[in-house]
């Protein structure tokens, strides 16, 4: 037994460590990401003795394993991660798990205690083999019996997926015969290009049967679900896949957590399967025939109460699987011939399967998560590698980047966070001529921030964009998704918040040697991205996400459109009246407050924080209690006037606003379509400037949303959005007030909206970007809500927001089932057509039964009984429609008090 490495060097021999390194090099490994310790020192020496492998230090093992993953995904061959004993392997396990799920070729080389020392159970001793098997396809252990270490290393390096080679300390110093000069290892028999085995017998018959099944599928009911190598553009494979999809009329889908997709102009467009299982199951369930190409059958990431486990629900006969690395290309070529896919020419007869060129415009002003995604997509260069661990902040990037110049997109495949920064290291080393952009969530980035130091040390071209929302937004989303209450208690807040103190990413990056700046607007972000992409070496830039950009009301920018800011309305200091204290004393009068003429516009729900919205609702409850008590002294609007602009008439809106403002002591002036015509008789901006000099408040119920924007931009008095064709925030506040009264809570409700994806849905989604809930819109295809609004709201990560075309499935477990008219009142022809188009979407007794006994029914009124809902549902005990109608007035009172600075 060899107990000492200090043995005489025998001619024609080398250490076991050198033999292992030589074998790895001969198998094609060129990079070793290392964090070695005592038991790996002979490997460190061997890396100097065997030329051809670049040694790269990682300050933490998760950096090493994540870098090896990123390298393997882009290079298509393994890197080596050198780890110190069992604890080192344990530290790197999360990113080895991600590599295993990505099927990335990776060699983990792990030292162990000397064979004769293992029975002593030293402090760092662990069961390495068992630990390694949790993430490895194969685990090899080098013994002291004189094995061919080079052959062992070659075998480990050439295996598919993650392979672990464990080498005890004494084996690393054991002398073994060295190869003759110039002699390389032979490698495994049959390895190397051109040695791919022939496809198995029966392949041609399989392809003929598959082609027949694809031809037989109904239009729009054939899906091709891809993963692994099927998503990489190698030797024209993606073009062929796109041609097959176009020739067969199939939808191309890809895994949600894909390892790598080559995307952009000229390549096929894939539909990314949704993250949450209910939505994913619905997306896949629409297909009669499903073809899986190099992808395992998708399953739910988590087992939610009442949720699915398997996402593929078709019969076995309806699911076709093409797998096996060696045969995918052959099978696709044969399938292409069967379907005559060669006749498909991109952009001529491809049916839109291939992506055109369509970069998003550079957004301006307020920097939101969606704006960040659009900015990156607008500026990323051709050939970029985008390492995407943005999580909730990056949901809009997939669509924003669909028409960019060709690039490679990498994501968090195994779900173990902390992969982004290390993967960017590996990708940059695999493809030094390509620019790497890492879109990084701040919470995940903190798991492996040490990787920034490796980027600086190796002078890698990586631009890191940290989405510093200072919260674990995904956990808040999960609280809402699972309807866990309370979700805002001190423990929940503490365990999902990354503030107090705030993490200074600029200082952190600088400490690791990476130049860093902070971007606070879209323009600043665009400028810094351009600088970062133009320089050599790594650079980190930190955009502030919309979730933490909070300015006190009165100095904040109002979001008037989808992210378009205006000048903040000036707001002098004011005395604030606390309505709850005044309500309790029942003694509040206008003498207590002297509000200024300027105030806060109420245009969109997500212009306000959750706390501000809840405060408005509490104000509404308190003011309602005062009015119900009969107290006549509560006149906060005494001496004030409100102009009510109606280009779109409504009995309910007029009466609720006019009555509410009058009850609170003010006077309302009605301006109907015959009195005022915005933008026709005179410019809207002139009307705004005049009316705000006469009135302390202006309420507007309009057709065009842009008219509301123009009013707000030029009015010094608060503008209240009574409704536009785009949204209806006052109604949603009334709905939430009613829900609070009947259900006892505001958060973690499931709201199922059944009907047209109209302005009500836009308002619900905007509320869901502030208050945690599960919101599902069940609508016919072709009547979905505005996709930009959906992306904007989903990007906040506050709530689960989904679209369904199966209303009975959508309402299951709902706290509130909500509907609205299918067509505008008075539009006879449209109404008749909608009855046909919305067949199956009527809220009836059967649907409410499917929702469950807990469900309440809401309708914003007026209702067409017998059309969108039945008479029985309107009159049922679970209907809270008329409480909801009353609360329009009370909710609007709370909004107006807040807008005037009186809440």
TrEMBL record:
MF (Gene Ontology): amino acid binding; ornithine carbamoyltransferase activity; thiamine pyrophosphate binding
Coiled coil: none
Swiss-Prot/TrEMBL keywords: Thiamine pyrophosphate, Transferase
Domain Thiamine pyrophosphate enzyme N-terminal TPP-binding intervals: 15-119
Reactions mediated catalytically: carbamoyl phosphate + L-ornithine = L-citrulline + phosphate + H(+)
This enzyme's EC code(s): 2.1.3.3
Pfam family for this entry, one: OTCace
GO biological process, one term: L-arginine biosynthetic process via ornithine
Domain Thiamine pyrophosphate enzyme TPP-binding residues, every copy: 413-539
Chain spans, region Disordered: 176-203
Domain Aspartate/ornithine carbamoyltransferase Asp/Orn-binding: 748-897
Residue span, Aspartate/ornithine carbamoyltransferase carbamoyl-P binding domain: 601-741
InterPro entries for this protein: Asp/Orn_carbamoyltranf_P-bd (IPR006132), Asp/Orn_carbamoylTrfase (IPR006130), Asp/Orn_carbamoylTrfase_sf (IPR036901), Asp_carbamoyltransf_Asp/Orn-bd (IPR006131), Orn/put_carbamltrans (IPR002292), OTCase_ArgI (IPR024904), THDP-binding (IPR029061), Thiamin_PyroP_enz_TPP-bd_dom (IPR012001)
Family listed: Belongs to the aspartate/ornithine carbamoyltransferase superfamily. OTCase family.
Family annotation (HAMAP family): OTCase
UniProt xrefs under PANTHER family: ORNITHINE CARBAMOYLTRANSFERASE, MITOCHONDRIAL, ORNITHINE TRANSCARBAMYLASE, MITOCHONDRIAL
Name of this chain's protein: ornithine carbamoyltransferase
Organism: Auxenochlorella protothecoides (Green microalga)
């Amino acid at each position: 037994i060899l107990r000492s490495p200090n043995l005489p060097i025998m001619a024609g021999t080398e250490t076991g460590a050198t033999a292992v390194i030589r074998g790895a090099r001969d198998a094609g490994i060129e990079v070793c990401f290392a964090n070695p310790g005592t038991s790996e020192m002979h490997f460190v020496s061997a890396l100097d003795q065997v030329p051809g492998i670049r040694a790269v230090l990682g300050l933490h093992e998760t950096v090493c394993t994540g870098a090896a993953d990123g390298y393997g995904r882009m290079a298509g061959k393994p890197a080596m991660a050198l780890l110190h004993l069992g604890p080192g392997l344990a530290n790197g396990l999360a990113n080895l798990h991600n590599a295993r799920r990505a099927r990335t070729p990776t060699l983990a080389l792990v030292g162990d205690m000397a064979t004769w020392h293992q029975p002593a159970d030293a402090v760092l001793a662990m069961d390495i083999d068992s630990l390694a098997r949790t993430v490895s396809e194969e685990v090899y252990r080098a013994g002291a019996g004189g094995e061919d270490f080079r052959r062992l290393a070659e075998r480990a390096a050439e295996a598919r997926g993650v392979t672990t080679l464990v080498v005890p300390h004494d084996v690393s110093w054991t002398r073994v015969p060295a190869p003759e000069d110039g002699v390389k290892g032979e490698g495994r028999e049959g390895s190397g290009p051109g040695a791919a085995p022939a496809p198995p017998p029966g392949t041609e018959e399989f392809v003929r049967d598959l082609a027949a099944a694809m031809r037989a599928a109904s239009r729009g009911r054939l899906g091709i679900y891809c993963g692994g190598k099927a998503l990489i553009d190698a030797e024209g494979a993606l073009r062929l896949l796109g041609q097959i999809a176009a020739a067969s009329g199939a939808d191309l889908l890809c895994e949600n957590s894909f390892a790598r997709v080559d995307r952009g102009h000229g390549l096929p467009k894939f539909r990314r399967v949704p993250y949450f299982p209910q939505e994913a199951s619905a997306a896949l369930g629409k297909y009669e025939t499903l073809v899986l190409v190099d992808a395992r059958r998708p399953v739910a990431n988590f087992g939610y109460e009442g949720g699915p486990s398997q996402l593929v629900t078709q019969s076995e006969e309806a699911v076709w699987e093409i797998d096996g690395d060696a045969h995918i290309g052959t099978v696709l070529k044969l399938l292409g011939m069967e379907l005559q896919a060669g006749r498909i020419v991109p952009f001529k007869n491809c049916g839109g399967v291939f992506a055109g060129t369509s970069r998003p415009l550079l957004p301006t002003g307020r920097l939101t998560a969606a704006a960040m995604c659009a900015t990156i997509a607008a500026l990323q260069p051709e050939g970029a590698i985008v390492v995407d661990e943005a999580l909730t902040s990056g949901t809009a990037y997939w669509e924003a980047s669909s028409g960019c110049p060709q690039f490679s997109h990498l994501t968090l495949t195994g779900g173990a966070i902390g992969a982004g920064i290390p993967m960017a290291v590996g990708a940059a080393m695999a493809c030094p001529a390509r620019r790497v952009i890492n879109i990084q969530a701040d919470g995940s980035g903190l798991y492996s921030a040490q990787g920034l130091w490796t980027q600086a040390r190796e002078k890698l071209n990586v631009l890191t964009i940290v989405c510093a929302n200072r919260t674990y937004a995904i956990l808040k989303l999960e609280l809402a998704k699972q309807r866990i209450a309370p979700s805002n208690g001190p423990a929940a807040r503490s365990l999902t918040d990354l503030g107090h103190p705030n993490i200074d990413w600029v200082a952190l990056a600088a400490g690791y040697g990476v130049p860093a700046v902070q971007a606070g607007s879209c323009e600043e972000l665009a400028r810094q991205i351009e600088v970062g992409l133009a320089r050599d070496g790594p650079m980190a830039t930190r955009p502030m996400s919309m979730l933490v950009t909070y300015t006190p009301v009165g100095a904040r920018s109002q979001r008037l459109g989808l992210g378009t800011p205006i000048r903040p309305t000036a707001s002098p200091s004011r005395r604030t009246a606390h309505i709850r204290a005044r309500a309790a004393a029942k003694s509040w009068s206008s003498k207590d407050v002297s509000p200024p003429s300027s105030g806060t516009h109420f245009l969109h729900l997500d212009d306000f924080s959750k706390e501000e919205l809840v405060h408005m609702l509490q104000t509404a409850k308190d003011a309602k209690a005062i009015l119900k008590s009969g107290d006549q002294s509560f006149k906060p609007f005494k001496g004030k006037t409100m102009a009510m602009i109606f280009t779109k008439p409504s009995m309910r809106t007029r009466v609720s606003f006019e009555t509410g403002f009058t009850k609170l002591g003010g006077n309302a002036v009605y301006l109907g379509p015959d009195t005022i015509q915005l933008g026709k008789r005179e410019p809207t901006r002139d009307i705004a400037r005049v009316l705000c000099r006469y009135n302390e408040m202006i309420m507007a119920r309009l057709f065009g949303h842009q008219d509301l924007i123009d009013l707000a931009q030029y009015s010094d008095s608060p503008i209240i959005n009574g409704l536009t064709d785009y949204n209806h925030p006052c109604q949603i506040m009334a709905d939430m007030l009613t829900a609070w009264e009947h259900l006892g809570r505001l958060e973690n409700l499931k709201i199922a909206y059944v009907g047209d994806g109209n302005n009500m849905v836009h308002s619900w989604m905007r509320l869901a970007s502030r208050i945690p809930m599960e919101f599902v819109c069940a609508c016919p295809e072709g009547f979905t809500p505005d996709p930009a609004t959906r992306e904007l709201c989903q990007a906040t990560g506050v709530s689960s927001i989904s679209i369904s075309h199966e209303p009975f499935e959508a309402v299951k477990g709902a706290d509130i089932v909500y509907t609205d008219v299918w067509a505008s009142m008075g539009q006879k022809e449209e109404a008749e057509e909608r009855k046909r188009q919305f067949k199956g979407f009527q809220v009836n007794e059967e649907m409410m039964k499917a929702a469950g006994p807990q469900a309440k029914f809401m309708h914003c009124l007026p209702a067409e009984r017998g059309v969108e809902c039945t008479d029985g549902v309107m009159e049922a005990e679970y209907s809270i429609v008329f409480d909801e109608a009353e609360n329009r007035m009370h909710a609007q009172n709370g909004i107006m008090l807040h807008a005037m600075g009186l809440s």
